[in-house]
Specification:
- There is one protein chain.
- This protein is of the alpha+beta class.
- It is built from four helices and ten strands, in the order ααβββββββββαβα.
Amino acid sequence: MKLLIIITFMLFLQACSFTPDKPVPLAKSVDLNRFMGDWYVIANIPTFIEKGAHNAIESYALNEDGSIATTFRFNQDSFDGELKTYKPTGFVSDHNNSEWGMQFIWPIKAEFLIAYLSDDYQHTIIARSARDYLWVMSRSPDIDDDLYESLVQRSVDMGYSREQIQKVPHQSSSLKNKSTILREAK
């Protein structure tokens, strides 16, 4: 049943997406090795599977074939909620490494655009041309209010609605411990 829901959702996304007049900007160049690792989802416009997410982390690892093993995990509806884990695969589709297809199930690849990446690889914004979903991520679960506001404003400047962007709750110490436990379990 879960698979059927995901397939239906992905087909719906593909059918309903539109491209505004202004394209999403892309990071000029992404060093994939530096991009790999854990990214804390600080804010988002959530998909249906991540509504109510707490302690959301997206982790990337480069596979030998150039694809990207992705693990997205979060607690559902509270800090102690059920741990949800999804493992899509990323496929880089441009020579700058900033445009990917994210595949939850074959053959559908959802658009995944690295629209912003800080020079120090500490903050990123993942966008879609349709401006329907957004992920503001950081290497740390806590960022200061000024930085948060600047990343949200950058998203708004790309054409996203400020009212739709939601902060993702993080419980820092618990999150770090869960991340370590999950990595050691692999």
